[in-house]
Design goal:
Blueprint (H helix, E strand, L loop, with lengths): L32 H47 L2 H23 L4 H5 L1 H29 L7 H28 L2 H30 L4 H21 L10
Length: 245
Amino acid sequence: MGFDLPHPFAFFNQPVFSRTEGQPGNPALSLSVPAANAHFGMNEELHALNVKRGRRLEYFTVGWNLLEAFVSLAAGLAAGSIALIGFGIDSLIETSSGLILLWRLREGEEGERRERLALKLVGWSLLGLAAYVGFEAARSLVLHEEPERSWPGIIIAALSLIVMPLLARAKRKVALGINSRALVADSKQTDICAYLSAILLGGLMLNAFLGWWWADPLAGLIMVPMIAKEGWESLRGETCPVCHP
């Protein structure tokens, strides 16, 4: 007898239900009144399922980033690595973003009313992240602070580089299903965490194997304008409410 084992990344690929039924040209428009009521009731049920999935993704985000912060901060303090310490603090900012979205994704009308405030809080988190990365990167370049070789840091950065793009893509799918700009903005911050993971991994490995100490802070400076732009757009509410999965 054989068993079907779940795919290791199945959590990120659960189906997302859209609320687009009933649009012009859709057969749902021709339903009778009782059938139409049942149809729209089903839409509300599917919306609730999407909201619940969004909450599960945010719980995972909070848990992962707390683990990431603990490992990065511990490894950074042990190795004297500014890059790892900065990455750990970034993970704490990501945790705050996840908590903001958990607040937003509570079911019911109260959750909908929190949308605008949640979007602004995510934007401020992005701007704070941009300021921190820019300051630390500039200081590292001026003071010639070289990140030390740290295998725990390399491992956590590599794992984050795998997990974060999958998590961001799953968030965008759910955001499409519930039409949430705040969740789109949070997915962009998750993307930024993946970019910073790549920067950290590249900096640690180039320094460890080639002695290129300046690679990490220089890449951090390049990322700052994009981080700040996303934060500003979130504050102004310009994040696209519907994005492709």
